[in-house]
Amino acid sequence: MNGKLHPGHLPRLQPGFxxxxxAVHWTLTLFDRGSGWLNDSxxxxxxxxxxxxxxxxxxxxxxx
Length: 64
Description:
Radius of gyration: 18 Å
Structural class: mainly alpha
Distance between the termini: 37 Å
Number of helices: 1
Order of helices and strands: H
Largest sheet: none
Number of strands: 0
């Protein structure tokens, strides 16, 4: 499977490239995004969910 091209996808690297720790930077911009949905209640629930997932999966998220 290594070195073979998959239509519409990048070629896969050898398995050793997918082991160990990684740093990921992710941004998301939405065209014509809605407003009014980010209130105190939503923010509290989002932070709690983020904290639980980070603790369970051993993630570090210095900012969001």
